[in-house]
Design a protein that fits this description.
2 copies of one chain form a homodimer.
Chain A lengths: L6 E4 L11 H4 L4 E6 L15 E7 L9 E2 L8 E2 L12 E12 L2 E5 L7 E8 L2 H4 L28
Antiparallel strand pairs in A: 1-2, 1-8, 2-7, 3-6, 3-8, 4-5, 6-7
Chain lengths: ~160, ~160
């Protein structure tokens, strides 16, 4: 299957190294999304949502290994039990805050995305669909609360 | 950019019509994911997570319109302000409950997915990354609470 970008994400992070880990780590970081003109009519009604889900191509990630040491840990984990960017299908997912939309440009906050990232899809974030009340998070149970202090290093850089 | 399936999702819904709307609508519906043998080593540690994010190819959705009347509404909305399956890049996203993993087969619950859907990625669901405390949901603000009673109809069927 073949996918085409519908826009480009512009952020303050030119390289995959030093990027916050997850939107939680990028709290307050501002960025913009340039949606290509031919798709802008599909942005109607989106400004009513405070948060949106971005799907994007992790275009700086090449290749993958099925066991990785994630940024949040010191031992190897199965790739699908991590959010590591090098994956068989390198599709990134971030829930970000939507501040406003002007002339097809989305102004967003809380960013963990490399500059120039090709956008694949925007979906509205809806708690009834996307939030779960009772959660177990395996190996991340303890460390996930420290994510806001962490940054990516060279391990998944291309 | 080109993506390849890493597995197949088997569900009780053979056709896009009559499928629950979002995992909330498919509460208690059981399904399995067959991860292809060459990717199974990447499933290590995943069984510690109660919920996972599935990204998949909405393979029964062809074409799209930038304004749609979503299942949850009676007036046209911008496509990107909806979760309608016909999109420029038809990538579906569901947060589902993971019950167990046996021989590369994931047993999952709360399903809104058509049988035979090609799986693109599995990510662990982590509240610190994927949950937002204060939310506005625009046109969905009132109707989203009724999603569990709704089913898809023919409007996005292929």
């Amino acid at each position: 299957m073949q996918f085409e970008p519908i826009g480009i994400i512009h952020t303050p992070f030119p390289e995959p190294i030093g990027v916050p880990i997850q939107p939680t780590g990028g709290m307050g970081v501002k960025a913009t999304i340039e949606v290509f003109p031919e798709y802008r009519d599909g942005l109607a009604d989106l400004d009513g949502f405070s948060h949106i889900i971005l799907l994007y191509h992790l275009h700086r990630s090449e290749g993958y290994k099925l066991r990785v040491i994630p940024f949040m840990d010191t031992v190897e984990r199965g790739l699908f039990a991590t959010r590591a960017p090098k994956r068989p299908n390198p599709i990134g997912l971030s829930v970000v805050q939507l501040d406003k939309i002007e002339d097809g440009i989305l102004h967003i906050q809380n960013i963990d995305i490399v500059d120039g990232t090709p956008l694949l899809d925007i979906k509205p974030y809806v708690p009834e669909f996307d939030q779960q009340p009772e959660i177990r998070t395996g190996w991340l149970e303890v460390v996930r609360r420290t994510v806001s202090e962490r940054r990516s290093d060279e391990r998944f850089g291309s």
